[in-house]
Design brief:
three-stranded mixed β-sheet; mainly alpha; homodimer; MgtE N-terminal fold; magnesium ion transmembrane transporter activity (chains A, B); membrane (chains A, B); CBS domain (chains A, B); 3 domains; metal ion binding (chains A, B); CBS-domain
Amino acid sequence: MDKSNINLTKSIKAMLKRGKVAEIKELLLYLHPADIAELLVDIQNGSQKALFKLMDYEKAAEVLDELEPEIQIDLIDSLAEKEKAEILEKMSVDEIIDLLQELPESKVEKLLKKLPMDELEKVKGLLLLSRDSAGGIMTTDYVYIPEDTPVPEAINMVRKFGREAETIYYLYIVDRDHHLVGVLSLRELISARRDMIVKDIMHKKVVSVHVDDDQEDAARAIEKYSLLAIPVVDSDQRLMGIITVDDALDVLREETTEDIHKLAGITAEEDIILTGSPLKAAQKRLPWLLICLFGDLIAGSVIKGFESTLETVIALAFFIPVLMATGGNVGTQSLALAVRGLATGEITAGNFVSYIFQEAKAGLIVGIICGAILTIIALAWQGNPNLGLVVGAAMGVALTLAALIGMIIPMILNALKIDPAVASGPFITTVVDITTLMIYFSLATCFFNLV
Amino acid sequence: MDKSNINLTKSIKAMLKRGKVAEIKELLLYLHPADIAELLVDIQNGSQKALFKLMDYEKAAEVLDELEPEIQIDLIDSLAEKEKAEILEKMSVDEIIDLLQELPESKVEKLLKKLPMDELEKVKGLLLLSRDSAGGIMTTDYVYIPEDTPVPEAINMVRKFGREAETIYYLYIVDRDHHLVGVLSLRELISARRDMIVKDIMHKKVVSVHVDDDQEDAARAIEKYSLLAIPVVDSDQRLMGIITVDDALDVLREETTEDIHKLAGITAEEDIILTGSPLKAAQKRLPWLLICLFGDLIAGSVIKGFESTLETVIALAFFIPVLMATGGNVGTQSLALAVRGLATGEITAGNFVSYIFQEAKAGLIVGIICGAILTIIALAWQGNPNLGLVVGAAMGVALTLAALIGMIIPMILNALKIDPAVASGPFITTVVDITTLMIYFSLATCFFNLV
């Protein structure tokens, strides 16, 4: 919630109300498309469309490039047919694809008719690719250079074809059949000797991704190798397109959001949850809630199993919340460490055992400290030394196990090639709840029967 | 846990054991520094250092650039004094800074002495800047061009000074006092007319960050405006350095990890937790655990407050786990949506009210569904219609409130300029636990007294 943006939104809204069209147009000229996009998200529906229509086609297309598909659709729908065609023509190919993938079949057909012939061919081919694949996010606007091009001619090609390209800083070298055979940075090209041909100065080892690879793998490769773009090839190593670092950033942000949501036990992409209907939102949250609901009924039946112990020492119930909650918290902490460690590649097949030991030790230390504190509190509160010992011991054991459960379950999922973030916090918490209550009531039963 | 890497690690380990030094050296020549870095993390201590020493200084410096500071320190410590100086000289300035910031005072002095004079000046100035600021992650290896330089000469400057620079694709234009006055992409420079001077073709509106700005703000600006680098300026608008997109990616990854950890109630940076001593790890996890421990003792005292109700209907205890857990889960889900929505800028000052309503409705729907299911189960399990109604009603009310608590608390923190991720899952869960138990036992007491 940027202060300057709040003010800008307010003054533009006021200008819209007072019909100060010329002033707004002037203001929009100076704003970056990303800022205008942010402004449009802030402004409510009616004015949103009015504002959008004040931009020229070029700017409008740039702004659309920055927006989420559902707002794009909304805005484009508000335009006259001729305007639609004009703006679509100016949008970048990968953004058009993103947009079309969100639309129902019937609308796609209508929009496709508005594209110029050469774009139509590109777009139709790309639409067949899976949305979450490298192919789904690549662009076909890149610079390629045949391998036997002399350096001066290559520089001319960059000048000429570079205008339309998403990046001109990496030049992809292809053979006669458009196989990717090398790469050259613009930096290397401009400092190369003028009498060379590109084949002799290019790098033959090129990091590339397959068109069917997951989009996240492509983004991670860009991140790992600090690239500005990565080429996308088919199974014959033919160059299909490129993914640029700014799109990789978008993918990583999306995937992070997905991971955080999954960790919290939500099973959907962000756009559906935050802006969709409440009914749909509820639907995406229910699966884990229901699984855990039944899981915690099992936890409840553990208590029922020890009903007579509880009836004898009703004070045992007072410590159920603190034991369940602390166990769940420790389990969630370990889960977060495991899931993030696996996602960033810090936990590997070579070192995961040491992480488990590390986690067990940390859990034990945390368990001893919390257990000791709880023993003292229970003693002071209930004045019952036996109860204090049972509660404290249960806490110590439960936390150590909770740390292990939170660390090991995502590792197992990962080894089984299942996204470890699926082991959501709610799931881990439920497993820990059942474990904790069993430990607690077993200890209590033994102890109070013995004493 | 990449399969090919596991095999590579194994075969290199075997080669090390059999002393096949020449073969390993050969292999290392073909590997990308990022891959070698990954390999080093995988391999255990002894062999790690042996392997590191097999690389030439150039490659070793590149590999160090890719590693976390603590492994860097470990590897550098294992080198002879002369080697240290050679490798340090080849590392990039921003990486040296990162490294020095992790070292104790005494070691910093020793290492600084090994730097060549010109680097020493740069490094000393940068060391004074805060670690998490834009200044702390910027590099001083950039290309700047005086404003009255003719285009052909500018191209020559790029060729000449570009060798050492982190990027040559953005050229920063400065006046006589090194004030940042404009920016030009290499793309624009090479397609510019040869008779122009850079001042006439540069962009005068430059997105920049202040040297004291948070590093996350710098990274978000790069992401938002799809930049390859962003200039860092002081309060007089003098150009101090640049931050490149690959460093922005690192920052965003770190900050995401921090957010996920904070959400799970862990109060530290990743490196300390996952690889530090278990005692330190425990220390970083205890603050929230203890706060929540006391919070859930309050939840326990709610039960104690209704002791007589519980003694009358002991079966009330069987449903404590499911009510607490489901309430906590819904609260955590809403928290995740709120924190992520705030971090990505989807929730703004203009639209946050609609998110709250949205969340209340979703909570209500989820509450009604879970409440109805629980009523039926309670009835079937305990054969007590009153108990069923109490449990179901409590569930419905508690979940609606949980959704609101999880959404509103991070929004309040955000408005108070506190990082909303601080409202960790454990904290929200504790607040929800207390609320849920109060609703449950109040309803139970009313209901069973009335009937």
